[in-house]
Design goal:
It is a single chain. The chain is an alpha/beta fold and 597 residues long. It has four domains: 220 residues, no CATH class; 103 residues, no CATH class; 93 residues, no CATH class; 155 residues, no CATH class. It is 56% helix and 8% strand. The protein is built from 26 helices and ten strands. The strands form three sheets. It has a six-stranded mixed beta sheet. Strands 5-6 form a two-stranded antiparallel sheet. Strands 9-10 form a two-stranded antiparallel ribbon. It is elongated, with a radius of gyration of 32 Å. The N and C termini lie far apart (72 Å).
Amino acid sequence: MDEPFKPQSLSVEELFGNKDALYKIPQYQRPYKWEDEQVEKLWDDLFEAYQNGEKNYFLGSVITARPAEDERSAYLDVVDGQQRLTTLMILFCVLRDLYPDLNAEQAHTEIRTVDRETIDDAIMFKGKSSRLKLFTHRQHQSDFESLIIHGHTSTLNKPKKYEIRSDEEPKYKFINTAVILRQKLETLGATETGQFMNYVFHQVQIIRIDCQHREFAIKLFQVLNDRGLDLTPADLIKSFLLEKLYKRHKEDPETSQLREEQFISDWREMEQTIKGCDINLNDAFILYEYYLLGQNPKKSLYDELQAAFKDQDPNQVIGDLKRFVSTYYQEIYEAHDTQIYAFRYLRWNMYWKTILLTGLHTGYKEMESLKKQLNRFYYLYWLAGKTLSQIKQTSFNLIKWIKEQRSMAEISDELNKKLSADGIVAQALRNLCSEQVASEPWIKPLLLIMEYNATDQSKLAFIELSQDVHLEHILPVKYAKYPEWGHISSELASKWLNSAGNLTLLGGAKNIEASNNPFAVKMEVYQGKGKYDEKNEKVTAFAITQQILRDFEQKTFSREWSEAALKDRWQWFFKELGEILQIETSTAQAAGQPTQI
């Protein structure tokens, strides 16, 4: 019986010089990713070991497998280790181009000397077959061969930073690595480089673990590799689906190739969609996992999805995933919808995203009502100070209910029962009536939702929770510095200063200028007549702040920010809150002032 895997400790020379040392990076792998930091780290590790005279320096492991689609192929699939192998191959090509006469004087006398012949053999097997092929994308192999394998690396120039960072064009990463390594070798000089390469080829060891089957290689990778360097759960899922595809059509190579090309095309289209929004590929698979299961996962993402996809057509799976991701991009990330905007400030984002996606993906007919009820539910739990554990099971229940196409009347009833059982509305109101809401993480999102509610719907745009959006204390923290605030007693200030009745929103520059000033000066800043606004004279863009300015201009409170003005703002805040969260706030309005908890 054949062993499922065979580990071998190989020197770099053996890893790239033996007759079985032919490698390919399969399609399910990601393209070459390394940038300056990783290349510098590899070089530093090797050079430090050389300087310290370490007899055998261990550079990690490489996991390979026989390609399932062609078991007679001389090439081994690289399941783990592609970044290091690719970087070492680039190093060999730079050596070949920079020092063609490497160790020429010692080559005839020293058996273990690394010379041009050794380098050439590490790059090409018998001068015919490349030791390393990249099949992550046809263009990647073409670029790698033209720029690195058959090109002249000495002519390459450092790419721009934005080019290096682009995952669409890994050729710039190939070039960048070549330039970094060339500069390192030029600094060493030919003689020192020769000695260093003798060390690298003969005393740097890598364990190559050859597996009989790709499926076992992937499982071994998961067991051994907890660093997350080369493969992500999404990569493993991709590999699993491709493996199923190959087995499904193994008797029909032509259909297999067509199905594989369609799969890869759909996968890449999905990746492109994700790159344009605020989630990554693994996030997308977690959302899809929650959608499929409708319950808390009991195993790893890979294991759960492997079980879910076990009896499905891989092409149908990736087609549905592509539509799922496209729905997220178009209907959630790109949505111009105040309900969606409100969701984006929430915690627990994987849950509300999955619930909405489930509704959109399954064609749920009451989406508008669902969005309102879901916003209400999550915000109330957030305001009440609850944690994920209090909403987790209900979130999974919501996914199931929507997939079952339950009516919103039934779902709303379930949510209200949960809110009532946990005493959420009363606790949320107690926290909102506090004298210290200014420090709460939810106060700025609440004011932003009120801003959307007060804004012309045709002019709506999402407002980021950025440093340019400030929480403005209308009665300033350092009010006592100014005689104009003499009507405010310390007792009154301690009650109102950080309460809901004294807070609004301002842009960064206006907030800096307005912060600790008399009320009349603040109103000039709100109006756009502060020194920072002399050229533009723009009134603050926030509608909820313009209300304060209008009251000032109309002398509603005798142009003072008095206790009457604070109470009026308090009434406004809770009236808005009641409408937005569909809760009864009359008790808080009647109290007319903040209370200690």
